[in-house]
Structure formats: C-alpha cells, structure tokens
C-alpha cells in the first residue's frame, strides 16, 4: 500500500511499488490527462510535476513518488484554468493535442524556476516531442505568460 499526494489530496493505492506512476494516475486514480506515449520516458506525453520538477511518469515507479507532491494537468490550475492553459488556447498551440498536457506541465515547471525564460531556455527545458511541430506556438504561449505572477492563475478561472 502506497500513500501518494496527488493534486493536494492524499490517496492510498494498493499497487506494486514498481508500477509506473503513469498507470497509477490513470488507472487507479482516474486522472486521464496524463498521456501514455512511448513508455520509456522519451516523448514527454506523460510529464507530471513531482516536487515542482517535470518528471516522466511512465519511467518513475510509483514508490518513488510516495511522500512527494505530485501535480497532474488536472491539478495545475487549482480548480480553474491555469495561465498556461489559457495561453495555449489563445495561441492555438494544439493541433492533435496529444502531447500538450506534458508540454504544459514541463512549461509550468520551467516558469517556476525561470519566470522569464529565453527561447534557448524553453528549448532546453521542453524536451517533449510533438509530431505536429507546434514548437514555435509553444514558445509564444510561454512568453505570453512569462513574468506574470502565479496569482494570474486564479484570475483566469472559468
């Protein structure tokens, strides 16, 4: 039995300790926003935040997340629309959209560390793969929210 803190709530899950965090989130906690892509931690579709860092949940055993704070796309906006999600909409970032939750989670982790990143810093931090090639719009959306206080998230609920 593992205790996980996901999106600010404690969950008791009866899973094998080496089960990937991705499957615990999707199959045991009912949080389908975190996507399965490659299964080996390369594509980034499964990115979540663990203690504020972007982490590939398909490659992280659930036991490694015990005692840490996990945030998924469902918990990013704290019940509303996060400023990055709003920027994604305004800049028409998604095409197929499959990789976008992972991109947003990586971008949010970047902005926590670097509130006004350069293009080079964005490119380095977002190693997520996008088959549609929406990278330039991803940068535009990140720059649109760069420098905004986190309280801007609460103002964008809806």
Give an overview in words:
The chain has 158 residues and is of the alpha+beta class. The chain has eight helices and five strands, in the order E-E-H-E-E-H-E-H-H-H-H-H-H. It folds into two domains: 2-76, Ubiquitin-like (UB roll) (Roll); 83-155, [2Fe-2S]-binding domain (DNA polymerase, domain 1, Orthogonal Bundle), CATH 1.10.150.
Number of domains: 2
Count of beta strands: 5
- CA-CA gap between termini: 36 Å
Can you write the helix and strand succession as a string? EEHEEHEHHHHHH
Low-confidence stretches: 154-158
Biggest sheet character? 5 strands, mixed
Number of alpha- plus pi-helical segments: 8
CATH superfamily of the largest domain: Beta-grasp domain
Work out the strand percent. 5-15%
CATH topology of the largest domain: Ubiquitin-like (UB roll)
Order of strands, widest sheet: 2-1-5-3-4
């Amino acid at each position: 039995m593992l205790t996980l803190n996901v999106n600010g709530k404690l969950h008791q899950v009866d899973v094998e300790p080496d089960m990937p965090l991705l499957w615990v989130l999707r199959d045991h906690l009912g949080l389908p926003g975190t996507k399965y892509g490659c299964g080996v931690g390369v594509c980034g579709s499964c990115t979540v935040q663990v203690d504020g860092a972007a982490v590939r949940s398909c490659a992280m055993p659930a036991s490694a997340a015990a005692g840490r704070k996990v945030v998924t796309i469902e918990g990013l906006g704290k019940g509303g629309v996060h400023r990055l999600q709003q920027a994604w909409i305004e800049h028409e970032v998604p095409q197929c959209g499959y990789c976008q939750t992972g991109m947003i989670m990586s971008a949010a982790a970047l902005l926590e560390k670097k509130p006004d990143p350069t293009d080079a810093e964005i490119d380095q931090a977002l190693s997520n793969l996008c088959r549609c090639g929406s990278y330039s719009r991803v940068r535009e959306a990140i720059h649109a929210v760069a420098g905004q206080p986190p309280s801007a998230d609460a103002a964008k609920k809806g």
